[in-house]
Amino acid sequence: MNSDKIKIAVLVSGGGTNLQALIDAQRDGGLRSGEIALVVSSNPGAYAINRAANAGIEAVTVCRKEMGDQFEAQLIRTLEKHQIEMIILAGFMSILSADFISHFTDRIINIHPSLIPSFCGKGMYGLHVHEAALAYGVKVSGATAHYVNEVTDGGKIILQKAVRVRQDDTPESLQKRIMKQAEWDILPRAAEQVAKKLRKEKRGGSRPATE
Ligand code: GAR
Description:
alpha/beta; Rossmann fold; seven-stranded mixed sheet; 7 helices; 38% helix; binds glycinamide ribonucleotide
C-alpha cells in the first residue's frame, strides 16, 4: 500500500451498491490515487456495512437519530481520527451543513441519480428522484457525480451520464437501470479524478508521479 494515496471515507446509509462499485474499482485498479480507509454509516442496519466488512475495510456507525445535534461534530471527530482527506457520499441520506462542508472544501463528492440540475435539491433522494422524473415525463434521465458545496446538489459537476427512460418504466426499474448504467460507472471515475488531483496537490506538483 502506498501511504501517499489519498485517504478516502465513503459515507453511506443503505444498500451500498455505489460503495461496492468503489470497492471493485479499487480492486481492479480504476481507483488508484486514493484508498478507501473508512466507511461511515448513518444507519446501523445498512447493508453497506457488510460490504465494507467483506472487503476488509473498517466501518463505523454514526447514527443521526442517536447523536442529535452532535451528529456532525461526531462525524468530524471520526473523520479526523482516521486522517481522512477526501469524502465520498454514496447514498448518504443526510444533508450536511455548510459548517461541516467548510472542514472539507473541494474534498467532498456525491453521486446523485438524475441529470443535475433536473430533479435535485431538498427532498430529492432515492426513489423520489425517479418518481419525479417519470411524473414529469422526461425521456432521458441519468446520474451526476459532483462536488458538494453548501447548496444541496449545487456543487460543480464532475461527470454525468445519460440513461434512456422506457415507456413502461417504474421508479424502481428506472432506479436500477440508472445505477447499473450510470452511477456505478461514473462514481469510481469521478473519485479517481478527484483523488488524483488531491494527490498531485499533496505532492506539491513537483515530484515525479509514481504509482
Ligand atoms: C443511489 O441511487 C444514489 O444515487 C442515491 O441513493 C441511492 C443509494 O444506493 N442517492 C441520492 O439520492 C442522494 N441524493 P446505494 O446505497 O445502493 O449506493
